[in-house]
Structures are given as C-alpha cells and as structure tokens.
Amino acid sequence: MAAMLQPQIILLKEGTDTAQGKAQVVSNINACTAVADSVRSTLGPRGMDKLIHDDKGNTTISNDGATIMKLLDIVHPAAKILVDIAKSQDSEVGDGTTTVVLLAGEFLKEAKPFIEDGVHSQNLIRSYRTASRLAIDKIKELAVSIEGKSLEEKKTLLARCAATTLSSKLIGGEKEFFASMVVDAVLAIGIDDRLNLIGIKKVPGGNMRDSFLVNGVAFKKTFSYAGFEQQPKKFVKPKILLLNIELELKSEKENAEIRLSDPSQYQSIVDAEWNIIYDKLDKCVQSGAKIVLSRLAIGDLGTQYFADRDIFCAGRVTEEDLQRVAAATGGTVQTSVNNVIDEVLGSCELFEERQVGNERFNIFSGCPSGQTATIVLRGGSDQFIDEAERSLHDAIMIVRRAVKNSTVVAGGGAIDMEISRYLRQHARTIAGKSQLFINSYAKALEVIPRQLCDNAGFDATDVLNKLRQKHASGEGANYGVDINTGGIADSFANFVWEPSVVKINAINAATEAACLILSVDETVKNPKSESAQGEAAASAMAGRGRGPPFGGRGGRGMRRR
Ligand code: ADP
Ligand code: MG
To answer: Compositional bias (Low complexity) at which positions (predicted)?
Structure first.
C-alpha cells in the first residue's frame, strides 16, 4: 500500500510518447509482417505486379521488390528497416529484393510466438545468427562454379541466369531474347565496373522484339537547327570531336565592357564577334573530324557551316551520353578548340543516324575500346518500358555478379529447401532451447517455395511435402518447385539458376534486419519532433491501433489474397 503512495518519478518531458517491453516487440513484428505481405504476391515467375500511383498522377507498374517498397512510402519506424534492406539488396546484388523482405518478415513471424511466451529476444537473436552462419556455409558448399568454361559455354550459362531473373517479370515472355542481349551487353563492357557504360534507351512504340543492342553508344537526336537536314547522316570510320563549348554566335559585349568613341567603330565589334565564331568553327573543321558533338549548344550558324563541309554535328548532348561516347570511341572531351591534336579525336567503325519508332537516333557502333553497350528498348506504353528497364537492370546486375564470382545455386526454392533440411538436421544435435529457435529459422526458409506455389495457384502444402520428402531422401538437393506443372522438378537440370551471392546476401540481410527489430524493446518519441507524419508513425508503432502502418492506406490495403 505504501508503494502506491510514492510520488511518480518523472524522467522524460511531458508529452513524450514511449512504448516498451514485449508489446513493443510484438507490435514491431506485426508491422514488418504487414510490409512483407504487401510484396508477397510478386515473388516468382507467376508473381503478380503492383500498380502504384501517387497523388501527382504518376503510375508505376512493377514487380521489383525494391521499387515497390520505395514507392509505398512507409512511415512506420521499424518497418522502414525492411525498406532499407530491400534497397541495399538492390544496390549490392541487384536481384532478390522480394526474397529478402519475405525472409525477414518470415523470420520475425516465426519469432513472434516465442516472444509472446516470454522468451528473451537475445536468445532468439543468438540462435538466428548461428543459423544464418550455418546456412551461408551450406550455400557456399552447394554452389557450383561455372569457371573454366569456353566463352560460348559461359555465354549460355550466363544467359540462363539472366533468364531466371527475367522469368518473373513483365518481359518474361521474351526472356531468351533479352537474356542473350543482356549477356552480350555485359560481356561487351568487360571487367569495367562502371554500370553506366551500359545505356538503356527507351523508345515507346513498336514491339518489344524490336528492341536491339548497339555495341557502342546510341542516343536520341538532340535539338538541331536549320541546316541539319543537309548534313550527311552516315559515316564509315569517322573521326569524332567531342566538345564542351558553345558554338554559337555570341554577343561578346555582354562578356566585356566596351567603350566606343566613334559610332563607326561599332561595325568592327560585330566583325570581331563573327570572326571569333568562324575561327572556332574553322578549327573544328581543321581537326579532320567528321562528327562534332558538344555538350553545349551548336547554333544555326555552326550547323550550316558544318553542313557545307559535309560534317555532322550535334549540340546539347547530355553529359552522360558524351562521356559514354568518349569511353567508347577513345576520344577526350575538349574545352577549347585550340590545338586539337589527333589523339583526342575518337573514332568508330560506323556512325549512323537512324529512325527508331518516332525518334531519330545517333548510333555509334563498332567502337574500338568496345567498353560500352546500349540497349534500345521498344514497347507499347511508358509504364511497360519503364518496368522493362528495371527488369533488364536486374538481369544486367545478375550477369555481372555471375561473371565476377561465378558460382550458382539451384533456384525455384530448391536451395531454400535444402538449407532448411540441413538446419533441421543440425538442430537435432543441439540440446537446449536453441534447438527450437533454429528449427523455426529453418521453417521460415520454406516461405520461398511456399510463396512460389501460392503465387502460381498450386497447392503449397502438397508441393512442400513432396519437396521435404525428396530433400530428406538425400539425393534431391536440387529439387524445387516446377512452375510449369505444379509438381517438383530438378531446378538445376531445368536451368533455374541463381548466382549464389544473391542468396547469401539475402539471408544475411534478412537475418540482420530480423535481429535488429527483435532487439528493439522501446521506442521513445520526443515531443519536440512532433509532426503530422511522426505522429502517425509513432502511434502505429506503439500499436495503439490508431494509424495503420502504411500512411492512411490500411495495413493490408495492398494485399490481394
Ligand atoms: P526477387 O525480387 O526476390 O528476385 P522474383 O520475383 O524475381 O523476386 O522471384 C525470384 C524467385 O523466383 C527465386 O526464388 C527464383 O528461384 C524463382 N524462380 C525464377 N524463375 C523460376 C522458374 N522458372 N521456376 C521456378 N522458380 C523460379
Ligand atoms: Mg528477381
């Protein structure tokens, strides 16, 4: 009784919102599960796409976990961690973004009953970490190297990895076509690490099969002045001058103060201005270049001047394109036209201005250093091409990964089932509570094959039972979901391959995220930082049922099933 009369100790400022303890962990887990639910249905070749539109009227159709998560604009502080791991998976390895979110969500879901029963988070975290280490070692052990094959063989193998990535996307119907295009593009740029050397240009209209690969650079015709039509549009082995200066008649009096004592002197200034520009143009011509590109404007005077001398020019080329032309043709961008020596000029086998759909494209092919490639994408609508670009980006990243550390594992849930089996077996050798936790971790890994089945409309329980039995028999390590028949099949033999680094990274990141969320048992909101958004976030976090985890949408608004 005496204790009740004691004055309350006030530690934090009035208005501070705190939530702590078991309830807090559970509420964070619920938020993360809701996030995982929102991307669940996009996994795998039969996964659905999401159409996300914002209040500005932008619509995006995507199957890519990272893209969807970014666009969802999640405000819940704990659930944001899942957005971060999807993003980091995207930038680290490029693929497996849905996988990583699903795994993290499932690890947490499996942990929830333990937390509710009063298990200390740290015990779970320790076991999860051990399990993840064991899983990764197992993946490394199961990975098959594609090193030491001939170029042709390697190309086919890489194309298969790319095709697996593309099979879950909108352009999956043409996966072979695009897979070989991606492989050619990646092999063209060699070992260079700069991704921007592969350009993707989008031209709405046409069929996606009209997309093509340029072994070099291609960009849309820039703004051009009169006289352009008279310029030649095709050159064999031209020299290319790259500039970063303006070739326009400028009134120099704006750059300098000029004082005249006699009106007749005015003409001399006008003449001087003309001389300056003619001098510049003449120097370009003298350099022997047949193509002049500039990042800045090339005016009508210049355009006509070059046209009269059978030279092609383009002004206002974007920085990115100009750099890629420089890398491809071996030229150097000049900031002055004085003393243009031969070494700074680029060259290529063929330059052509070609019609692609409604656009005219400047295409440089057969470039000597061969370090660039451009994919020109065609397709019905803007949204379609945008999604196609994102899918190709995934595929490009995968092929690049596979080229670098060339080991692959069987996809279609096969590797996940195998690790799951291995962990269950290992768990049996452990005495103590850890056995249960590792078992739960193993069970969580099954979410991948289960979701692949669910999304394809198969009976997941049935397929999973078959898979468990096959993997337990000891010779079915490569068996995964057969997406065509609804049964099980040897994924490796069917060329459903994934670079092992995708799986390793996904398991690592998902485990870390899950452990991080489990280790948070209190959130404190400072009253000062109160803002409309912050309030919604904190109230959802505190689990008081006021704000849904997604700003105003309802936690499961995105869910289909
Ligand atoms: P993520 O964003 O995680 O890459 P995806 O939608 O690309 O998600 O789906 C990837 C999953 O689909 C992987 O587990 C992969 O093994 C599986 N998968 C891809 N192609 C096939 C296929 N033809 N048959 C079975 N599973 C496949
Ligand atoms: Mg993928």
So the answer is: 529-543
What average pLDDT score do residues 50-63 get?
86
Q: What order of strands is seen across the sheet that includes strand 312-314? A: 312-314, 291-294, 239-243, 346-347
- What confidence category does residue 517 fall into, taking pLDDT thresholds of 50, 70 and 90? very high
Ligand 1 binding pocket includes 90 (Cβ within 6 Å): no
Q: Both 231 and 333 in a single domain?
A: yes
| Tokens matching residue 126 | 């320790």
* Domain contains 258: no
CA of 93 to the centre of ligand 2 (A): 11
The two three-digit tokens of residue 190, written as one number: 């060699």
pLDDT band at 415 (very low <50, low <70, confident <90, very high): very high
Which atom of ligand 1 sits closest to the CA of residue 65? Answer: 2
Mean pLDDT for 170-199 is 79
User: Residue 74's closest CA among 533, 544, 512?
Assistant: 533
Please say whether the beta carbons of 328 and 293 come within 8 A.
no
- DSSP summary character for residue 48: P
Range of the domain at 156: 151-215+376-405
Q: How many domains would you assign to the chain?
A: 3
What does the alpha-carbon distance between residue 356 and residue 349 come to, in Å, rounded to a whole number? 20
394 has catalytic annotation: yes
More confident residue, 462 or 149: 462
**440 pLDDT band (50/70/90 cuts)?**
very high
73: annotated active-site residue: no
pLDDT-derived band at 540 (thresholds 50, 70, 90) equals: low
Catalytic residue among 33, 98, 511, 523: 98
| pLDDT top residue among 484 and 406 | 484
Tell me the best of 41, 43, 409 to mutate to test the pocket of ligand 1, counting ligand atoms within 8 Å of each CB and taking the most. Answer: 43
Whole-number Å distance between alpha carbons of 8 and 30: 32
User: Which pLDDT score, from 0 to 100, does residue 439 have?
Assistant: 94
Residue 477: inside a domain, yes or no? yes
Please report the atom of ligand 1 found closest to the CA of residue 167: 20
Cα 45 to middle of ligand 1, angstroms? 6
Contact of 444 with 103, CB cutoff 8 Å: yes
Q: Ligand 2 centre and the CA of 302: distance in Å?
A: 49
Nearest CA owner, ligand 1 atom 4 = 96
CA-to-CA distance for 101 and 512, rounded, in angstroms? 12
476-503 tens-digit pLDDT = 889 999 988 888 999 888 878 888 888 9
> Do 101 and 43 fall into the same domain?
yes
Q: Is 86 in the pocket of ligand 1 (CB under 6 A)?
A: no
Per the annotation, the verdict on 17 as an active-site residue is no
- Please check whether residues 164 and 206 belong to one and the same domain: yes
Query: Does the beta carbon of 452 sit less than 6 angstroms from any atom of ligand 1?
Result: yes
Mean pLDDT of the chain: 84
99, 416, 467: residue to mutate for ligand 1 pocket, most atoms within 8 A of CB = 99
Per-residue pLDDT reduced to its tens digit, 17-32: 667 778 888 989 999 9
